[in-house]
């Protein structure tokens, strides 16, 4: 047995792509928050040991950056180790603030730099850890963040500040952790669906390859093996001619084990081969082509060797049919039939037309079990990429058979004949029309109606309700603050509605309008000199809403809303007698949050588009590999069957010696067995083979047909046993066994024409009955 090694494609899964994307997003977020924290770090550096403080800052923001750098080439173990070190470092640094630096910081700068990026290690853990571990660490990190803020707050009520800060951190971080975990689940589903699709495509391609390889070998068996055995068995052909055909057939069988040496063949060489083939089969036929020396437009070009083999085989079968049948019943009277082979070669393709002026026939009336036209001509060409064939004939008007290789179907109709192109147009599927809409990505189809999303929404409403209550300013119009809170809460609720497609424009307008109303109401409520720690809570709330809006695929709308929010903040600062930069400072601190969310979504969409291309290529490669493996396996199995049946007889025929009566009878038996293997594949098993051979030796004419296609009977053993039993009971006459299509209730029929005519039906379990 020859072992064939086929290279397996190196596929990149959706999970692997997403992991790399999330690592890069974590690195980008760490870089952004690291830059924003430089001012706080310089003001809060631990003076007893500035080097230790610098090392802590470098570890806090350098480890996630290193994670992103290593994501493209690092092993999963390395990436997990970096995340573990990052998570531990955050806990240790928070413990340092709680134990060694547990004193209030200066008023107005009492937010430690270490908790400005609490979400970075949490998201990093969520990239690799299980859902329960990710949420546990998120709660722990936010709890530590709240405790650190409590210990360092310069406010009069640090406990309430720490609680509010911890809850807000939990809310903000939970959004990004939830998005990360949702993306991981989506990637896992994509991987599962992709694998199922790839396997199904590979199975389909393997099935097609097996069938095409089987039909290719069947065509060779019909054209060469069966023809040689039939010539020898009938005894009408000189032994030297039979010997030549047998030797050529053995060479062709051996050549099937290896692909053609030449990938392409020049048309001029094809013409020479056609002339040689014509002289062997129909010496009186005329081969004509558009000779450029006579003013023709013959184009010298290359044709794939597989197409050349198919064309020569189809032309040979067409010539043999013409020699055998074109003269009709008047053949014995010496009726002369004129045959021509017209070769056409242009820049659009290559075509050969075999014509005769014989008796003709009706192509629609040819029985399906006749393989000469259906498989050896039309089927052979249809199995070749860009191959086409057409048979045109009618009683009394001769026959035209056109075979062609037409790689460019655009202009070939005028140059290579309408018969071929009309058939090719019917056979080849039209390319699919491009989709007018982009595939819905994870961001665009994000479902925020899950229990976890509703829990985060409830946390959003609760946290900002607490912040609003903490920062009530005596003497200010409380109604404005309540209106702002309700508008922002309703805007957040509007984001949570489930949608099957992109977020509707009407809902986008509603969300942005409510955010604008909430911002205007809060700016109208706040005094210019408010020193409350969370006085501008609405800016963070609106930014968080814009992050979720971006996560639903509306990045432009999110940044448009942020721009309007910044303009409102600057306008409020100017209107209240403050410098414009004061309003700008209020919103710029939230830019990192929105930028991190935007980078996450943009990278996710880009990765999804890249992944679709990679999956398409991987599917094609998997189909190609499956095709190669299946074709090789089917070819070897078919060759084993053909060699077992016919090679000993072909070797005997290769010697130019006269055959005995017993040898001629054996040739006919082998020829009939080969026909059974082609036409009645599902019945070419024991004990049917032995029963058929025994019946033929008794003089019974046996025809075995299989119309089941690729759907074999459910109980082949029971069917074979029943058919063999019936064959053993027929002593003379004729019997036709036909396996029915898969959609029939019964499995097979047996038509017996002996002393009495009868029709028998075989059921699904092998039972025999009469219709």
State the fourth-level CATH superfamily of the domain at 259-426.
Histidine kinase-like ATPase, C-terminal domain
Structural class: alpha+beta
Could you describe the largest sheet, including whether it forms a barrel?
Answer: 5 strands, mixed
Number of helices: 23
In CATH terms, what is the fold-level topology of the domain at 259-426? Heat Shock Protein 90
What is the mean predicted local confidence, pLDDT? Answer: 81
CATH level 1 name of the domain at 259-426: Alpha Beta
What is the percentage of strand-forming residues? Answer: 5-15%
Using the alpha-carbon principal axes, give the shape.
elongated
- Quaternary state reads single chain
Distance between the termini: 47 Å
The helix fraction, in percent, is 55-70%
Topology:
Elements: H1 14-36, H2 38-44, H3 50-70, H4 76-99, H5 119-128, H6 131-152, H7 158-234, H8 239-255, E1 264-266, H9 267-281, E2 286-289, E3 302-304, H10 305-325, E4 339-346, E5 349-356, H11 371-382, E6 387-393, E7 399-405, H12 412-416, H13 418-427, H14 451-470, H15 478-495, H16 505-525, H17 537-551, H18 555-575, H19 580-588, H20 591-654, H21 661-679, H22 688-697, E8 701-706, H23 716-729, E9 734-739, E10 748-753, E11 757-762, E12 768-769
Parallel strand pairs: 2-4, 8-9
Antiparallel strand pairs: 1-3, 4-5, 5-7, 6-7, 9-10, 10-11, 11-12
Helix pairs in contact: 1-3, 1-5, 1-7, 1-20, 3-4, 4-5, 4-6, 5-6, 5-7, 6-7, 7-8, 7-11, 7-14, 7-20, 7-21, 8-20, 9-10, 10-11, 14-15, 15-16, 15-17, 16-17, 16-18, 17-18, 17-20, 18-19, 18-20, 20-21, 22-23
